[in-house]
Amino acid sequence: MLFDTFKKSGVYDSSTFAPVWLVDWYAYDFELVSSPNLEDLVRVNRYGMEQDWGLAFYHQGLLTRRYSCDELLRSLNSKIFFRNTSANWHTDWYDTFGSNRDMLVFTTQPRLLGLADKRLNLGMQDSWVFSLRDGQVLGNKTMGTARFLGFILGLVVMLLTPFGIWLLRRGRRRRPGPEV
Questions:
Q1: Pairing between strand 40-44 and 32-34?
Q2: Cα 112 from Cα 109, distance rounded (Å)
Q3: Among 32, 83, 166, 178, which residue has the least CB neighbours within 10 Å?
Q4: CA-to-CA distance for 145 and 167, rounded, in angstroms?
Q5: How far, in Å, CA of 27 to CA of 104, rounded?
Q6: Is 19 exposed, middle or buried, given 0-12, 13-18 or 19+ CB atoms closer than 10 A?
Q7: Each residue of 49-87: pLDDT tens digit?
Q8: Which H, E and C letters describe 91-112, residue by residue?
Q9: Distance CA 56, CA 46 (A)
Q10: 45 contacts: CB under 8 Å, gap ≥ 6
Q11: CA angle 111, 129, 23 (to 5 degrees)
Q12: Pairing between strand 94-100 and 118-121?
């Protein structure tokens, strides 16, 4: 029935059901963003940190460009900084995935530090804008670096303060008394 009419994923003419273009893979609708004319398509790989690609751009069903997670996660790109979902056991690495006219807007998850449900949001997150047509980068920035650097500075101060106090106390003990 449905499979007899539509043997592969792709775009079909609505009046004749003839294929306009086809692909050899299947994806859920939340993993896809398309241009209004359905010529251009972007697919996000929710298993991207476990596989070799994170975003794939297609024009009329043909792959035009791919980005790996290492390219999209500009810093702190280790799995330890991301949540692992219990739903289908993959690393939750991206946040926003949507279109704005002829552009793809894409952000990664904020980096987290901690264990289980007790995680500290480090605030570092990557933001990207791509051309839907060919996957060219139109803009990108890493947000939250000041917050992350503040966190690191605070951690260093917390670790060095007891050492500084110890040095001050040790120096007071060694001072010789007045000579008589």
A1: antiparallel
A2: 9
A3: 178
A4: 32
A5: 17
A6: middle
A7: 888 999 999 999 999 999 999 999 977 777 777 777 666
A8: EECEEEEEEECCEEEEEECCCE
A9: 12
A10: 31, 51, 53, 54, 55, 56
A11: 100
A12: unpaired
Tokens of 130: 């791509």
pLDDT in tens, 17-61: 888 999 999 999 999 999 999 999 999 998 888 889 999 999 999
Residue whose token pair is 């006219």: 101
Q: Which residues, including other chains, have CB under 8 Å from residue 82's CB and lie 6 or more apart?
A: 49, 91, 92, 93, 109, 111, 112
Q: Which two tokens stand for residue 116?
A: 């289980």
DSSP classification of residue 85: P
